[in-house]
Amino acid sequence: MKIQKSNKIKGSIGDRLIQIIINVGLGLFAIITVLPFLYILAGSFATEKELVERTFFIFPRVISTNAYKYILETGEVFRGLKNSVYVTLMGTAINMFFTTTFAYPLARKDLKGRSLIMNLVIITMVFSGGMIPSFLLIKELNLLNTYWSLFLPGALSAYNMIIVKNFFEAIPSELEEAATMDGCNTLLCFIKIVLPLSKPVLASVSLFYAVGHWNGYFGPMMYISDPEKEVIQIVLRRVTLLANGVATDGSLIDYGLLGTPPDRAVKMAVTVVAVVPILLVYPFIQKYFTKGVMIGAVKG
Amino acid sequence: MEQIDYCYDYNKNATISVKLPSKNGTFKNAEMEGHIIMAVNVKKSKGKTLQYMRRNFWLYFMLLPGALFFVIFKYIPMFGIIVAFQDFNPFQGFFGSPFVGLTHFKNFFTGSDFWDLFKNTLSLSVLNLIFYFPAPIIAALFLNELRSVTYKRVVQTLIYVPHFVSYVIVASLTYTLFNINDGIIHEFLRLITGKSIDVLSSPEYFRPLIIGQSIWKETGYGTIIFLAALSGVDMELYQAAKVDGAGRWRLMWHITLPAIRSTIIVMLILRVGTILNTGFEQIFLMRNDLNRSVSEVFDTFVYTKGITQGQYSYSSAVGLFKSLVSTVMIIGTNWLAKKFGESGLY
């Protein structure tokens, strides 16, 4: 009896220790995650003097908005932001058009040729022609330096399409049947009944696409060389990475319209400007992405 | 299923006639949702498919944009890999360029390129598998043990953030923190070790840096799938084990971990299937002339050789090799995942 009791106490001390380790560990991880963001945010509002003098700080002593003024004056970053917003909105709209129109017929279990089409889609998930044939295709189609080169090659993600299709399949068919009885045709049924009922999955999937467009770097780098059409990620990379004197492709460092190597605060401000739009929609993202992952995890 | 459509058309538009049974046809009762709808003639004839297609014209019409997309942007590039067997030059085009068979593949495998790329790609993948793969599992187990709901939510909200920022931003942050001029982590490391370590351009630090970035960026988001699996664990199991005197550690080891075992196995299998896919953007952005000996992987090589230097055929051959190996790996591991009774990638 006595032994048992002491065991229990020992166990609970161990338990408490584990609890502390877990709490502290996760707390540390969370801090490591956000600290770089806080640091660049603070740095972007700091004066150059303070950035040189102090090694690390979260609250600048003197608040300066010079870096942001500089960004606005040069116009390059602002143009990048504007282009990125356009690419994201337009690209996502195109994605959603292709994805939903393709998913809807496939959600009909009685559609003839359904399994054949699905197999053809799955083949593209497993095998691809690769980078070079895709590049040559875009070149042949004369899409280089147009935003179509960003919209079209990824207009439909098979994975997202399957998520949407699975959601459509779960909508009770009686609803559509009833509507059909009342004289609703296929297109009307799709627009008036199926789409409004699928808002959660449409929100998730359009966020998947939108974040992809906003963060996209590879496509713009490959296909867009016209400075007028640069998106924010390209500008950001030039300002922050190449300005560090490390040109990853070994080419001459071109600071573009900025002319001189930007100072520390400017680099940080550009990074902040590229992150902020993501953080603005983050509450929605968190809600719908998690949901999207769950929907995606339940496949049919 | 055709019967239902007949019925709809019939209700909607009385002018459509329902065919009466003919010699080669049969009567069938179509039953749906407990209502006997009507008897329809399911006639086996050649025109039936066409008729069906016509009736469901709008459904097929809706498939059109997506179908065009798949043909143009997925299937045409698949046939475009013919350039890997040619000496492609843009002026002669796909049809005019001379056919050279497997020459590029021979050059690739006999030269030094192949082993360098293979070694670099595999090193990164294996290191990822060892260090990055367990991170979300551990984080999920830890999160599951948190008692305060608020604290758990705050931690989750914070650690999901990096998943949504681009690799350009991750690379920018890395450069800002590690560069030898004013990076604070560089300063910090100098204080501890007493010497200046150039993490960004030393080949020996390239791999740890990439793995570190992956862990920082994706651990939080990776927990979601494991937390989902954990939410299904019966709480009574814990209570029963507690009554039997099990401590937290044992609860975690004997109940929580087995509950997510199948998820872990499937994630592991799928991860192994994509072992040659080292994220292009991440490596491309962290690569520079000084660490090229370890940072050149299949994707970056194809880009440099093909897009930058214009050696379309040779780089296509390298890309095709990678695609083929990936395909075999994905199909194989997917089959394995299904053997474990889980739904795989498709």
CATH topology heading of the largest domain in chain B: MetI-like fold
Roughly how much helix do the residues of chain B carry, as a percent range? 55-70%
Q: What is the annotated CATH architecture of the largest domain in chain A?
A: Orthogonal Bundle
Question: Which secondary-structure class do the elements of chain A indicate?
Answer: mainly alpha
Give the topology string of chain B: H per helix, E per strand. HEEHHHHHHHHHHHHHHHHH
**Structural domain tally of chain B:** 2
Low-confidence stretches of chain A: 1-10, 245-261
Q: Can you identify the CATH class of the largest domain in chain B? A: Mainly Alpha
- Describe the strand arrangement of the main beta sheet of chain B, using strand numbers: 1-2
Q: Determine the CATH topology of the largest domain in chain A.
A: MetI-like fold
Order of helices and strands of chain A: HHHHHHHHHHHHHHH
Task: Explain the overall architecture.
The complex is a heterodimer of chains A (300) and B (346). Chain A is mainly α and 300 residues long. In chain A, 72% of the residues lie in helices and 0% in strands. Chain A is globular, with a radius of gyration of 26 Å. In chain A, 37% of the residues are buried. Mean pLDDT of chain A is 84; it is low at 1-10 and 245-261. Chain B has 346 residues and is mainly α. Chain B folds into 2 domains: 2-55, no CATH class; 105-339, MetI-like fold. Chain B is 68% helix and 4% strand. In chain B, strands 1-2 form a two-stranded antiparallel sheet. In chain B, helix 6 crosses helix 11, helix 8 crosses helix 11 and helix 14 (261-273) runs antiparallel to helix 18 (312-339). The longest helix of chain B is centred in the middle third of the chain and has 28 residues, at 203-230. The two termini of chain B are 26 Å apart. The interface between A and B is large, with 106 and 107 residues.
